[in-house]
Specification:
- Helix content is 35%, strand content 14%.
- The protein has 762 residues and is α/β, with parallel strands linked by helices.
- The strands form 6 sheets. It has a 7-stranded mixed sheet with strand order 3-2-1-4-7-6-8, with helices on both faces. It has a 7-stranded mixed sheet with strand order 20-19-18-21-24-23-25. It has a 5-stranded antiparallel sheet with strand order 12-13-14-16-17.
- α3 links the parallel β1 and β2.
- Bound molecules: 2-acetamido-2-deoxy-beta-D-glucopyranose (6 copies).
- Keywords: Membrane, Transmembrane, Transmembrane helix.
- InterPro entries: DUF604.
- Pfam families: DUF604 (PF04646).
C-alpha cells in the first residue's frame, strides 16, 4: 500500500475508490433498511400473464401447456430413438428435436411417432462474437432460445432434456400445474453423485434429467442469452451456462426429487426400488446403465416401464412400505417396478435407503459418493429381500382376478387367502376408481431371482415360505397401493396408523402466533452458565412457551433462577428401563429423546408446534411463527434440516433433521410419536444419536422429513462469516453450535454476538 501512496495518480484512484465505497455503503444502508430497493436496481421479479393467454391464465395446466425441447445428434439418434418415442405422444405432446445436422438417409422419411425434427441454428457468428470455447455447449443452451422463438402460444412451461432420457409428461403436468407459471421458476434436479455437485454446483440443474422453465423465465432468458454467452465464455458445460444466465436474472433453482439425472452405473434396481413418494418426472442416462428389468434388453425394459406408466403414471416407482403383523414380514413395493419381501420387521428408515446395486458415476472414487444414504447388498438370507419384478398387465374382470389368484394359493393356509379375498372385495366396494382399474387390468408378477440380492436355495433356513402365495398378496398391494397401506388388520403398520383429527375448532385455523409454539431445549446444568447467553437473547419471558430440560438440579451459582431464562425442569427419565437392552445407548441420548415426551406431558393446551433444540442454538421466533404458520399443523409434519457437512449426512442421514439446529413437530405428530416412544426406542437400539432414533420413530409413522433451509446445524468450525454471508433467500430460523464456532461478529464475544444479531432480528 505504501508504494501506491507514493504515486499521485494512485492516490486519486484510491480517493475515488473511497468515494465509491462510501456511496456503496449508503446504498447498502438503503438495501438493509428497505427490503425492495428502487426498480432500476433490481429487475422486476414477476411478470404478468403472458399476453398470448391472458384469459386462460387461471385454467388448469394440461399437456398442451408444456413445450419440450429435446437435444439430439444424428449419430446417436438411431439407437436413442426408442427412448424418446416411448414417451412421446404424436399430436399430443408439443415440442421439437434439435439436431446438430439435418437427419438424412435411413432416418427419412421421418417417423410420425417421433417428435418433429429441427436443425440447430448456425451459431458461427455468435461463437466469434462471444469467443466461446465450447460450440457444442453453446448449441445446447441456444436451443432454449430457438424453442421459445419457434413456439410460444399457450405455453406455460419449457422443458429441455436429452435424447437418452425418458419423461413422464402426465406427471409433469401434475407437478408443474401446482406451481405458478406466471412467476420465474427453474425446476431441476441435482446429480446423484456428490462430486458432480461439488465440481459443478449444488445450485445447478443437471440438464440431462431435464429441467423446466416457466414462460416468463424462458422469455427473460431468451432475451439475454446472446449477451450471456459473451459474459461467460469460459464456462465448461451447458448446464453451468444455463445456471449462470438464470442466476443473472436473480432466480434460484427449485429442486424436484422426481427428476433424475442418473449419474450412476450398472444395476439401477436398488435405486428405482426406493423412489420417494413424489411423482416420477424423468430418468436420464438410459444408455449408461444396465437394462432396468432383468433378462430384458433396454428396448424391452423401456417398453415394460411404459406399460406400467400407461396404467397409472402418477404412482409409478413410488415406494410403499407395509408390514404384515401376523408373520412379521416387511414389504417394500415400488409401484409398477418391483416388490421386495423381507421375512423380518425392518424399520422404514432402512427400507427407504436404496440397496447399493449400482456403481458410482466415476469409478474408483472414494466415499462419500451419493447425495442419499444407501444400504449394502447382502447375501445373508435373513436380511436379503425376495425380489419380484413387475412383469405384465392383463385385462381381466374383478371376479376373475380373485378366482384365478385364489387358485394359486393352494400352498398357503386357507384362512390367509380368505382374508385377502375379503380385503379385496371390501376395498373395491369402497373405491369406484379401483373397481374400474381392476375390471380392466390385472397385475401379474413373474418371480425373478436377482443375482446377489436374494438366495432361495434349499439350505436357506430363513426362507420357509412358499412364494406363490405371496404373488397374490403383492397383487393386492400393487392394486390397492396408497401412501399408508390399506385394510388395517392385514396390512397394518407395526405402529398405530395416523389418527384422523376429529376435533377441529375454529381457533385451530386462526393465524399461528407465538403462543402456539412450545420450545423444548435440552441442556446441562454444567454448561448452562455460558450457554444461557445464547438462549436469553431470543427468549421472551412469559411469552415464549416451553422448558429447558437439565440433567441435574441447577447448582447454587445458577440460583436464584434468572427470570430471563426459560423455566427449567430436571429430566425425569428412568433410563435403566430403556438401557436394559445392553446396547450402546448412553443415558443422555435417551434423555434427549425423552424430552419430547416430558414436554408433551407438560404443555399441550393450544399447542400447534413443538420446537426441539439445543442450549447452544439461537432461534428466530418470529420467522418460526411465520414459516410454521404456512404448514397445516393438524397434519403430520416433521420439519428440519440436514447438516452442511456432507459426511455427517452420509453417516447419520440425509433424511434426518439434525437436532441441534432444531426441528419442529406438528402437534398431531408429536402426539402419535410419544404414544409409542418407549417401544420405539427399544426397537432401534443400534442407533447412536437421539435425532436418528427420532427420525426412525417418525418414519415408522409414515412421515418423512420436510427440509427447511433456514435451520442451521452449522456443521463447520471457526469463522462462519462466509457461510452466513451467502444465506439463501429463505427466513433464517436457527443457528446452532454457537459454542463451537468463532464469534460471528469480529471484535465481539460470543454472547455479545448473539445479542447483536438479535438486535437486527428485532
Ligand atoms: C388445455 O387447456 C386450454 C385452456 O387453457 C384448452 O384450450 C386446451 O384445449 C386444453 N388442452 C387439452 C389437451 O386439454
Ligand atoms: C397427427 O396429425 C396429423 C394432421 O392432423 C395427421 O395427419 C397425423 O396422422 C397425426 N399423427 C398421428 C400419429 O396420429
Ligand atoms: C412377531 O414379533 C413379535 C415381537 O417381536 C413376536 O412376539 C411374535 O412372536 C412374532 N411373530 C412371528 C409369527 O414370528
Ligand atoms: C394467539 O392466537 C390465539 C388464538 O388461536 C389467541 O387466543 C392468543 O391470544 C394469541 N396469542 C398471541 C400472543 O397473540
Ligand atoms: C412473568 O410473570 C410472572 C408472574 O405473572 C411475574 O412475576 C414476572 O415478573 C414476569 N417476568 C418477566 C420477566 O416479566
Ligand atoms: C479454529 O478453531 C480452533 C478452536 O477454536 C482453533 O484451535 C484453531 O486454531 C482455529 N483454526 C483457524 C484456522 O483459525
Amino acid at each position: 500500500m505504501s508504494s501506491l501512496q507514493s504515486d499521485k495518480n494512485n492516490i486519486l484512484v484510491c480517493l475515488w475508490k473511497v468515494a465509491a465505497i462510501s456511496g456503496i455503503v449508503l446504498y447498502l444502508v438503503s438495501v438493509f433498511l428497505f427490503h425492495n430497493p428502487a426498480s432500476e436496481f433490481s429487475p422486476p421479479l414477476r411478470l404478468p400473464c403472458p399476453s398470448s393467454e391472458l384469459n386462460a391464465c387461471a385454467s388448469p395446466t394440461n399437456i398442451s401447456h408444456l413445450m419440450f425441447g429435446i437435444l439430439a445428434s444424428v449419430k446417436t439418434w438411431r439407437h436413442r430413438k426408442l427412448y424418446t418415442d416411448s414417451w412421446w405422444r404424436p399430436n399430443v405432446t408439443r415440442g421439437y428435436l434439435y439436431f446438430d445436422v439435418a437427419p438424412s438417409g435411413d432416418l427419412l422419411p421421418w417417423s410420425p411417432l417421433s417428435p418433429p425434427p429441427r436443425v440447430s441454428d448456425d451459431i458461427t457468428e455468435l461463437l466469434k462474437e462471444s469467443k466461446h470455447r465450447r460450440p457444442m455447449m453453446v448449441r445446447m443452451v441456444h436451443a432454449i432460445l430457438e424453442l421459445f422463438r419457434d413456439e410460444h402460444d399457450w405455453v406455460r412451461w419449457y422443458i429441455m432434456g436429452d435424447d437418452d432420457s425418458i419423461f413422464f409428461p402426465e406427471n409433469m403436468v401434475d407437478v408443474l400445474g401446482k406451481l405458478d407459471h406466471t412467476k420465474y421458476i427453474y425446476v431441476v434436479c441435482n446429480s446423484e453423485n456428490i462430486k458432480s455437485n461439488v465440481g459443478f454446483s449444488f445450485n445447478m440443474g443437471f440438464g440431462g434429467g431435464g429441467f423446466a422453465l416457466s414462460y416468463p423465465l424462458a422469455e427473460a432468458l431468451s432475451k439475454d442469452l446472446d449477451n450471456c454467452f459473451k459474459r461467460y465464455p469460459y464456462l465448461r458445460s451447458a448446464d453451468e451456462m444455463t445456471m449462470a444466465c438464470i442466476d443473472y436474472i436473480g432466480v434460484s433453482l427449485t429442486v424436484n426429487k422426481g427428476i433424475h439425472q442418473i449419474d450412476l452405473h450398472n444395476d439401477l434396481s436398488g435405486f428405482l426400488s426406493s423412489h420417494p413418494q413424489v411423482p416420477l418426472l424423468s430418468l436420464h442416462h438410459f444408455d449408461q446403465v444396465n437394462p432396468i428389468f432383468p433378462k430384458l434388453n433396454r428396448a424391452e425394459s423401456v417398453f415394460l416401464l411404459r406399460k406400467a406408466a400407461d396404467v397409472d403414471q402418477s404412482r409409478l416407482l413410488q415406494q410403499t412400505i407395509c408390514y404384515h403383523k401376523q408373520s412379521n414380514w416387511s414389504f417394500s413395493v415400488s409401484w409398477g417396478y418391483s416388490a421386495h419381501i423381507y421375512e423380518s420387521v425392518i424399520p422404514r428408515t432402512t427400507l427407504k435407503k436404496p440397496l447399493e446395486t449400482f456403481k458410482p458415476w466415476v469409478r474408483n472414487t472414494r466415499p462419500p459418493l451419493f447425495i442419499f444414504n444407501t444400504r449394502w447388498v447382502t447375501n445373508d438370507p435373513c436380511e436379503a429381500p425376495h425380489v419380484f419384478f413387475f412383469d405384465s398387465i392383463q385385462k381381466r374382470s374383478v371376479n376373475e382376478v380373485v378366482t384365478s389368484e385364489q387358485h394359486r394359493v393352494g400352498y398357503r393356509p386357507v384362512h390367509q387367502a380368505e382374508i385377502i379375498r375379503q380385503i379385496m372385495s371390501r376395498e373395491l366396494r369402497s373405491s369406484h376408481l379401483l373397481q374400474s382399474l381392476m375390471s380392466m387390468k390385472e397385475l401379474k408378477f413373474r418371480l425373478r431371482e436377482m443375482s446377489g440380492l436374494s438366495s432361495m436355495s434349499q439350505s436357506n433356513l430363513c426362507k420357509t415360505v412358499v412364494m406363490s402365495g405371496l404373488v397374490l398378496y403383492l397383487v393386492s398391494i400393487f392394486l390397492l397401493n396408497s401412501p399408508s397401506c390399506p385394510a388395517s388388520e392385514f396390512l397394518a403398520l407395526t405402529w398405530p396408523s395416523p389418527r384422523p383429527i376429529t376435533v377441529v375448532t375454529e381457533s385451530q385455523y386462526a393465524p399461528t402466533n407465538l403462543s402456539h409454539l412450545v420450545f423444548c431445549i435440552v441442556g446441562t446444568a454444567k454448561e448452562w452458565k455460558t450457554r444461557k447467553s445464547y438462549i436469553e437473547p431470543w427468549w421472551l419471558p412469559n411469552q415464549t412457551r416451553g422448558y429447558l430440560y437439565l440433567d441435574v438440579a441447577p447448582t447454587e451459582d445458577l440460583l436464584p433462577w434468572s427470570p430471563f431464562s426459560p423455566p427449567f425442569k430436571v429430566s425425569n427419565v428412568d433410563t435403566s428401563q430403556l438401557l436394559y437392552t445392553r446396547h450402546i445407548f448412553e443415558g443422555f441420548v435417551v434423555r434427549i429423546i425423552q424430552a419430547i415426551l416430558e414436554e408433551f406431558r407438560e404443555e399441550h393446551e393450544g399447542v400447534r408446534w413443538y420446537v426441539m433444540g439445543d442450549d447452544d442454538s439461537i432461534f428466530f421466533v418470529d420467522n418460526l411463527v411465520n414459516v410454521l404458520g404456512t404448514y397445516d399443523h393438524t397434519k403430520y409434519y416433521y420439519i428440519g434440516a440436514n447438516s452442511a457437512d456432507i459426511k455427517s449426512n452420509v453417516e447419520f442421514s440425509f433424511d434426518m433433521g439434525f437436532g441441534g439446529a432444531g426441528y419442529a413437530l406438528s402437534y398431531t405428530l408429536a402426539e402419535a410419536l410419544v404414544k409409542n416412544l418407549e417401544d420405539c426406542i427399544r426397537l432401534h437400539p443400534h442407533l447412536r444419536a437421539a435425532d436418528l432414533v427420532l427420525t426412525s420413530c417418525i418414519a415408522d409413522l409414515g412421515v418423512s422429513l420436510v427440509l427447511h433451509k433456514g435451520l442451521h446445524q452449522i456443521g463447520v468450525h471457526n469463522d462462519t462469516s462466509g457461510l452466513l454471508s451467502s444465506h439463501p433467500q429463505v427466513p433464517l430460523l436457527s443457528l446452532h453450535h454457537f459454542d463451537l464456532v468463532d464469534p460471528i461478529f469480529p471484535t465481539l464475544s460470543r454472547s455479545e454476538s448473539a445479542r447483536h444479531l438479535m438486535e437486527a432480528a428485532n
